[in-house]
Write a structure and sequence with these properties.
Radius of gyration: 17 Å
Largest sheet: none
Low-confidence stretches: 1-46, 50-58
Strand content: under 5%
Mean pLDDT: 78
Number of helices: 10
């Protein structure tokens, strides 16, 4: 089976996520996120893309089409990995390439991986609705995806953050889902720590972490 890393290095980690990293080492290791400047209040969220390449294709050309779309997605992924900063125009091109592939070639083993990549890019450019759409698609359509718990955790973080969707109840539900469905995984421990921090300020979290270090 072809191996292809489900990670990108350009997603943004805000202050609260930095404080939570003791409880989410597995997530940081999996996604290999590098810190970039978080979006400012003046940046507006772009509209999510719920469509994909609608070029008419014959069923007999499906495998050939998927091969081309997969290569285009992987090529764009490589381009982004070589970028020092995530350009918004390039990010949107990547989102289109990734969703064209993942939506059309739903049965391909790399499709859920590129949905997670799409979410990371969307989050990095403050397109939270787009990130939510692709993560929900990944979680619902790929119940056997080996990194499904990671996708749930990323979705929970969108709800958990004040500057994103700011819905603590939904975040808690998703963290609990990880604990219920993947009780023996590292994600369960990360979710348990994240639930503990829900509703607390960065200052409160920092104090608790400092106490644990003593």
């Amino acid at each position: 089976m072809e191996k292809h890393s489900p990670i990108i290095k350009y997603a943004c980690i805000n202050q609260k996520n930095k404080l939570m990293k003791l409880f989410a080492i597995a997530l940081l290791s999996l996604l290999m996120m590098a810190c970039k400047t978080p979006p400012t209040d003046s940046q507006k969220q772009t509209s999510p893309s719920t469509s994909f390449d609608t070029t008419p294709r014959l069923i007999k050309n499906y495998f050939g089409d998927c091969k081309k779309l997969r290569q285009a997605a992987k090529s764009m992924d490589s381009t982004l990995l070589n970028e020092m900063e995530l350009d918004k125009t390039l990010a949107n091109k990547a989102i289109k390439a990734f969703t064209d592939y993942a939506y059309y070639c739903q049965g391909d083993s790399l499709s859920p991986i590129f949905l997670v990549k799409t979410a990371q890019i969307a989050k990095a450019i403050n397109n939270i609705p787009q990130a939510k759409i692709v993560l929900e698609r990944c979680i619902e359509n790929y119940p056997q995806f080996e990194n499904r718990a990671a996708a749930i955790f990323l979705l929970a973080q969108l709800y958990d953050e004040n500057n994103f969707m700011n819905n603590e109840m939904e975040a808690k539900r998703l963290y609990q889902q990880i604990m219920d469905e993947y009780p023996k995984s590292d994600w369960s421990e990360s979710a348990k720590g994240a639930i503990h921090f829900i509703g607390k300020s960065d200052e409160q979290i920092a104090k608790e972490l400092l106490k644990k270090k003593k």
